Amino acid sequence: MRWHSTWHTCGFFRTLFSVLNQRRELLILTMQEDDYEINQHYGRGDLGTTILAALQAAGKNPQRLTPDDLAPVDQFHTAGKQATLELMHLAELQAGMEVLDVGGGLGGAARLLAAEQGCKVTVLDLTQEYCRVGELLTARTGLSDRVSFQQGSALDMPFPEARFDVVWTQHSSMNIADKARLYAEVRRVLRPAGRLAFHEIMAGPVQPIHFPVPWAHEPAISFLRPPVGLHLLLGPRFGEMFGNQVRNLQEHRITVIQAVFERI
Ligand SMILES: C[S@@+](CC[C@H](N)C(=O)[O-])C[C@H]1O[C@@H](n2cnc3c(N)ncnc32)[C@H](O)[C@@H]1O
Fold it and tell me: How far apart are alpha carbons 196 and 169 in whole angstroms?
């Protein structure tokens, strides 16, 4: 009897596993392998209910939310809402401008640009669950007339040429290996003299990076490029030099001053 039930259990797990594998293969057939991995990395399956329950527990009304209520969870980048506001001012956004947020996630920046500046924002994101939950959160903030979501890839944007005044992107290019194609797509959908507003993580001079990081559990879906920087002046030992600079600062061996002096 015991053997019998054990075999049944094994059979059940085998079947379940192969169904899961078939589902994975099916999903991969409809999307690139990287796209599937990114959906796996960011998707949770229950994000909408989890976020709404946490907001309710924090004393918010989940039926009527503000961008500020959502800021702790929907500004998925360094320096959060403050960084979004800074970039918004830098980009000199005006009311009525058509903005595309590439890799816009749950739509936190999009809702802020719509609420603060009156922009019309389209969020393009690869993660299906982010788009679905983003639509839900946008409806709860009453901004659905100004913020919309489109599931898709930044490498093959489902928009015509010269469609947007501004392309906006915060912390999404780290997941994208083909940077040339990404920025060719950005250029294609921007109108002449349109702007790219950019807030991204780049590779530092000390490599490799430690995993996991918020955008990747492992190196397979992380593609950081170095920015223009002092490594161009200092050559191949820059990583070591930079590391020593940080260490010397931490151990108080050097100190830095910044000052403005007036001539007497
Ligand atoms: C760290 S999150 C940042 C989300 C949002 N920009 C923010 O700052 O709150 C990175 C986002 O990039 C999206 N992403 C990654 N690769 C993408 C691609 N090839 N096309 C579109 N979106 C992509 C992910 O789905 C995820 O939502």
Answer: 8
- To the question of pTM greater than 0.90 for the whole model, the response is no
**25 in Cβ contact with 17 (< 8 Å):** no
Residue 157's Cβ-side half-sphere holds a number of Cα atoms within 13 Å equal to 26
- pLDDT tens digit sequence for 134-147: 999 999 999 999 99
Closest CA to 103 of 161, 169, 187, 147: 169
Q: What's the CATH number where 202 sits?
A: 3.40.50.150
- Distance from residue 172's CA to the centre of ligand 1 (Å): 4
User: Comparing 3 with 203, which gets the higher pLDDT?
Assistant: 203
Q: Give the domain range for residue 242.
A: 3-263
Tell me how long the chain is.
Answer: 264
| Total number of domains constituting the chain | 1
Q: What spacing in Å lies between the alpha carbon of 252 and ligand 1's midpoint?
A: 39
Instruction: Report CA(124)–ligand 1 centroid distance (Å).
Output: 8
Q: Which atom of ligand 1 is nearest to the CA of 215?
A: 1
Choose among 215, 138, 124, 225: nearest CA to 168. 124
Question: What spacing in Å lies between the alpha carbon of 191 and ligand 1's midpoint?
Answer: 23
Pairing of strands 190-199, 120-125: unpaired
- Pairing assessment for the beta strands 98-102 and 164-170 based on DSSP bridges: parallel
- For ligand 1, which residues put their CB under 6 angstroms from it? 38, 42, 75-77, 103-105, 108-109, 124-127, 130, 153-155, 170-172, 175-176, 214-215
Taking only the tens place, the pLDDT of each residue in 42-72 is 999 999 999 999 999 999 999 999 999 999 9
